[in-house]
């Protein structure tokens, strides 16, 4: 049943802009680079996630701290949850509001490290699709601190991250694809003795217009992530190779971490 508890207070949106590369990577061209990261995938992921046995009949209230166009928020709302999505990308939030069910989502432009919500308002916080690792460790720590503040005592946090071992072992250095009339070329390399993966994206449009940007993500093993969670006031409870809870091993498709607010 849909939760009827009152929504958290939400003041006006902040003015802090995205960096130039992030505005490009997480803006209007996101779907060209990640065509499989759409509503169907979000539906599957949230259906599986809400069946995790640790949650019991809940959680009723969920916050997605890097929601993009709100695809996971929509999937949660359809399953009777109160869900709030936060993101800094005006383009991604605008795309959600142009979607087939704009009233289904409660989306707010806000910094995940400075969320406009009262403390203890949520049962579950989400940081999905490698939301961490683009900035400094201190920035990630602030995001985790804010997630902890937003959660009630005993609330849950779920992280979806790259599996560093998979990247180290099998880095795809170049890929090329066609997305409609656009050609997408991605080049990847490791730097800092494998501490980061750098990806250069180039999109060539049919009018000969190019979009280019560079992403840089830290590669850290499960133990590093779990130590950061403990330092941030969370108790790590599980690590999985996918949302279906298959066992996580070095080289898994991904790393899903479950933690509880201590």
Write a structural description.
The protein is of the alpha/beta class and about 260 residues long. The protein has eight helices and eleven strands. The strands form two sheets. A seven-stranded mixed sheet has the order 3-2-1-4-5-11-10, sandwiched between helices. The longest helix is centred in the middle third of the chain and has 14 residues, at about 135-150. The chain starts with 19 loop residues before the first helix and ends with a strand. The model has no long low-confidence stretch (mean pLDDT about 90).
TL;DR?
With about 260 residues, the chain is of the alpha/beta class.
Shape label: globular
Relative strand content? 25-35%
Radius of gyration: 18 Å
End-to-end CA span:
28 Å
List the secondary-structure elements in sequence, H or E: HHHEHEHEEHEHEEEEHEE
Largest sheet: 7 strands, mixed
**Class by helix and strand content?**
alpha/beta
Mean pLDDT: 90
SSE inventory with pairings:
Layout: H1 20-25, H2 30-33, H3 39-49, E1 61-64, H4 71-78, E2 82-87, H5 90-97, E3 106-109, E4 122-127, H6 137-150, E5 151-161, H7 164-170, E6 174-179, E7 182-191, E8 196-204, E9 210-218, H8 222-231, E10 234-240, E11 255-261
Parallel strand pairs: 1-2, 1-4, 2-3, 4-5
Antiparallel strand pairs: 5-11, 6-7, 7-8, 8-9, 10-11
What brief labels describe this structure?
single chain; 262 residues; alpha/beta; seven-stranded mixed sheet; four-stranded antiparallel sheet; 11 strands; globular
């Amino acid at each position: 049943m849909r939760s009827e508890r009152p929504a958290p207070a939400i003041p006006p949106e902040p003015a802090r802009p995205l960096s130039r590369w992030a505005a490009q990577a997480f803006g209007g061209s996101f779907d060209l680079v990640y065509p499989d990261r759409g509503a169907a995938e979000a539906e599957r992921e949230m259906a599986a996630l809400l069946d995790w046995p640790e949650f019991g009949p809940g959680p009723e209230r969920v916050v997605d701290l890097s929601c993009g166009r709100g695809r996971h928020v929509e999937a949660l709302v359809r399953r009777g949850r109160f869900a709030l999505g936060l993101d800094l990308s005006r383009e991604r939030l605008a795309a959600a509001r142009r979607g087939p069910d704009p009233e289904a989502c409660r989306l707010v432009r806000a910094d995940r490290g400075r969320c406009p919500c009262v403390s203890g308002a949520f049962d579950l916080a989400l940081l999905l699709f490698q939301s961490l690792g683009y900035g400094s460790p201190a920035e990630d720590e602030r995001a985790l601190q804010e997630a902890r503040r937003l959660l009630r005592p005993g609330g849950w946090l779920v992280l979806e991250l790259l599996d560093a071992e998979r990247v180290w072992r099998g880095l795809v250095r170049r890929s090329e694809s066609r997305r409609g009339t656009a050609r997408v070329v991605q080049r990847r390399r490791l730097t800092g003795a494998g501490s980061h993966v750098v990806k250069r994206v180039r999109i060539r449009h049919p009018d000969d217009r190019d979009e280019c940007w560079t992403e840089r993500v830290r590669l850290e093993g499960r133990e590093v992530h779990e130590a950061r969670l403990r330092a941030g006031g969370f108790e790590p409870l599980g690590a999985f190779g996918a949302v279906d809870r298959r066992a996580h091993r070095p080289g898994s498709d991904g790393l899903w971490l479950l933690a509880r607010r201590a």
